Amino acid sequence: MVGLGAAAGMAAALGDPPADYASIPAVGLFVALMCVCIIVGHLLEENRWMNESTTALFIGLGTGAVVLFASSGKHSRVLMFSEDLFFIYLLPPIIFNAGFQVKKKQFFRNFITITLFGVVGTLISFTIISLGALGLISRLDIGALELGDYLALGAIFSATDSVCTLQVLSQDETPFLYSLVFGEGVVNDATSVVLFNAIQNFDLGDINTAKLLKFIGSFLYLFSTSTILGVAAGLLSAYIIKKLYFGRHSTDREVSIMMLMAYLSYMLAELLDLSGILTVFFCGIVMSHYTWHNVTESSRVTTKHAFATLSFIAETFLFLYVGMDALDIEKWKIVGQTYSPVKSVALSSTILALVLVARAAFVFPLSLLSNLTKKTPEGKISFKQQVIVWWAGLMRGAVSIALAYNKFTRSGHTQQPSNAIMITSTISVVFFSTIVFGLLTKPLIRLLIPPRHLSREPSALSEPSSPKSFLEHLAANNPGHPGLENGISLRRPSSLRLLLTSPSRSVHHYWRKFDDGFMRPVFGGRGFVPFVPGSPTESSVPLLARNEN
Questions:
Q1: What residues pair up with 485 in beta bridges, in sequence order?
Q2: Residue 421 and residue 344 in contact, taking contact as beta carbons nearer than 8 Å
Q3: For the segment 511-539, what is each residue's pLDDT rounded down to a tens digit?
Q4: Is the dihedral of CA 320, 321, 326, 330 positive or negative?
Q5: Shortest CA distance to 158 belongs to which of 118, 197, 198?
Q6: pLDDT for 472
Q7: What is the pLDDT of residue 481?
């Protein structure tokens, strides 16, 4: 017996297959498919209709059909949908990189409008979809649905697909539209998840004014504390790297600490029942403003491309899975045996119509309200831009699918027909909106905003990799010249009237004074790169900073 035990232990040590060996072919298939997506996406780079998200969707759909045929109609997926996989592993790198690469000036210049769309707009959309579902879907007689189910539908389909926005809008060509749509999408996703969780825990049988006010207070607390946590995590990473300067011994350490602290901010938010989406997004913004400038030049290049690569892989994996999940045969069989095709199409069409109406109900009125607060034409949202903002935000994605699985399944499975048809309808709406609205967004932008009116701006993190070009860029963007921004001369407000007519410029000016006077000396950033004797890549940077100051 001892000999058999020793032999078994030796066999395990020599590499017997682990218990989860069956998952290796599935992971291998996804890796191969992602390689195919990258190749096909490269070949279709110049195509005005296709983008990488729709390419991955179609490849996932085709693969699902092949798997369905090979398994004799038993299943179409090689991996079961997991909320943990989505919310813990795939979403954080996507949202963090978006914050890390975002044009901060554009984002904060439009922050009030973004918050107005992302919070108030989401609440309006949630109300219209919930009431519309209660009035229209209840008449389709799809089964016993409770009030909580209709409210959950409002939260599920209020969540826009901020991931797909990254694919269909260009931050360089349309920075204003990108900052509006994507910024709204991030706040919208966080608001939708908060609404969904609140509905799950809310006693719908006893609603009164006190509980409603408590709910509003809880939301404001969640929004503010999540943002503060993200900012604090970013500042902490900047301070640690600035003081300890890992780059003097190993650039690997400073790259690792940036990645780990960014992910830690998301996990802390989830542990504290806050919004990890908001936390990691603002952590990315702060890290790009302070931490990124405190590391060596080689680490800047590494982190910039590492974060972008992780985000790209997560996005591709996500769209591949959504495409493959569209043929979830278990749910479709239940729906096919219980409901007629007309009823399934009617349900999906009703939801899609509610999404269209709900988004229009807040985009155009809130744009008008936002324009009333703008004193300069540059900050106002034109009607053509409003149409693009409305259209680009119609896409629904993985957040909607994840919330639908959470509400209408148990561990990804359900045998109740009313739950199954909700899952298939969600998949149908996500697939249709991503492909149709996603494919038509670029042509719509070119139609409403001709190419000659598109502005191309360098990315906030697009600094060249050579030391000479880096120093030239540093000199060109030195904080010692507050009157120059992107080559445009800005006047200081010299009177109360001028202050009121150009509030965004004055706020930015005073923020720059505070940033240069207090924040950057403490936390680092552009122009405050630490000097360490013997540093081969940074030794000349402080000299330039001292000469300029």
A1: 488
A2: yes
A3: 788 888 888 888 888 765 555 444 434 44
A4: positive
A5: 118
A6: 42
A7: 42
